[in-house]
Write a structure and sequence with these properties.
Layout (H helix, E strand, L loop, with lengths): L1 H17 L1 E4 L5 H12 L3 E6 L3 H12 L5 E4 L5 H8 L5 E4 L14 H29 L3 E5 L12 H12 L1 H4 L12 E5 L2
Parallel strand pairs: 1-2, 1-4, 2-3, 4-5, 5-6
Length: 194
């Protein structure tokens, strides 16, 4: 009995340690903490940060916590950054990058509204296209789109953010169907309602 339990725990560790995680939006908040904690557990983590200034800050924090963390500049809205990321060997993609544009729906400038959707919806979907193709080619992987309860409800001053997160709620659906190019199932996608 004792030997069997050890094997199960060992397998769980091997699965966790052998996966390479790409976490977007890892320069601050939830994404940063997830990246650091996975690295503390021994996982290989690529922490994608939006701006180069975040690289040094995150590197210092990883060093202070004694963890090995690969930090890459990855702005999900930048085509060059996305193409670079498509070359990485990723087992788990956590689309966490996002911004929140607040204000009255009648007052938000069009440029700000477009930026909200570029960062929260279009950038992650375009990044996922290349990563998913790689996952399909190697036989598997996991794709997670980080959402928010705001995608299910809205108030007077969070309309733009809520609309973008509602779109994120729907983002995983196409990834769970068969790929027309290969006939194989696409990697599983899971929205998180936190």
């Amino acid at each position: 009995m004792e030997e069997r339990e050890h094997r199960v725990l060992y397998r769980r560790e091997v699965i966790i340690v052998s996966s390479t995680y790409l976490i977007t939006g890892a320069g601050s908040g939830f994404g940063k903490e997830v990246a650091l904690r996975l690295a503390e557990q021994g996982s290989e983590v690529i922490a994608g940060v939006e701006i180069i200034a975040q690289v040094g800050a995150l590197r210092a924090e990883a060093s202070a916590r004694g963890v090995d963390l690969r930090i890459e500049k990855l702005d999900v809205t930048d085509e060059g950054d996305r193409r670079k990321a498509w070359g990485w060997d990723v087992d788990v993609l956590l689309n966490n990058a996002g911004i929140a544009e607040g204000g009255s729906a009648v007052d938000i400038p069009a440029e700000n509204l477009r930026r909200q959707f570029e960062v929260n919806v279009f950038g992650p979907v375009l990044l996922t296209q290349g990563i998913a193709k790689n996952m399909i080619a190697k036989g598997g992987g996991k794709i997670i789109f980080m959402s928010s309860v705001a995608g299910l409800t809205a108030d007077l001053f969070t309309g733009a953010y809520s609309r973008s997160k509602h779109a994120v709620e729907q983002s995983p659906m196409p990834w769970t169907r068969s790929s027309p190019n290969t006939g194989r199932r696409s990697p599983r996608s899971i929205p998180d309602r936190s």
